[in-house]
Write a structure and sequence with these properties.
This protein is mostly beta strands. It has a single domain, classed as Jelly Rolls (Sandwich). It contains two helices and twelve strands, in the order ββββββββββαβαβ. It has a seven-stranded antiparallel sheet. It has a three-stranded antiparallel sheet with strand order 7-6-9, with no helix packed on it.
Length: about 160
């Protein structure tokens, strides 16, 4: 029987490395690519109302999001749909998507398979012990260019009122 190069991981609610993401929100890393031997990454994202992602694709990973708390408006492959608590969505690799937090706050759990885009997130983040600065899509774009994992297609596709 072949053995896995993954390592056992157990983290309780609130545990995990905390990084402030330049795209907005705090990522709490639950399982890293190193821990899964590259199989996947899993992180929680804690965000506030109005946080929006640019329209983007992940060329080499399938991304699943699970809404723990709050509600988002999801733009997935040209269609918009609200996803609330305990709802799930999956964007296969290469499918354009974006989301907007419509509730006061939201907590989402993201799993990406394989775990090859972790360098992008880390390159567009800093330790959450610092005071979060403003959203900085230029730094997000720079990390995407340097590490790959994501291709930004354009601004958030949502109508502002």
């Amino acid at each position: 029987m072949a053995s896995s190069k993954s390592v056992p991981v157990v983290r309780a609610d609130g545990e995990g490395e905390r990084l402030w993401f330049y795209g907005g929100g705090v990522h709490i890393w639950k399982v890293t690519s190193d821990e899964t031997a590259g199989a996947f990454i899993l992180f929680e994202d804690v965000m506030t109302q109005g946080k929006a992602t640019p329209l983007h694709v992940h060329p080499e990973v399938d991304e699943t999001l699970y809404v723990l708390e709050g509600e988002i408006l999801l733009h997935l492959d040209g269609h918009e749909q609200r996803v609330g608590p305990l709802g799930v969505a999956m964007a296969p690799r290469g499918v354009p998507h974006a989301f907007l937090v419509v509730s006061e706050t939201a907590r989402l759990l993201f799993m990406e398979v394989p775990g090859s885009s972790e360098a992008f997130y880390r390159g567009a983040s800093e330790p959450a012990t610092t005071t979060p600065g403003p959203v900085d899509f230029a730094r997000v774009s720079a990390s995407a260019e340097r590490y790959g994992g994501i291709v930004i297609l354009g601004p958030p596709p949502f109508q502002t009122e």
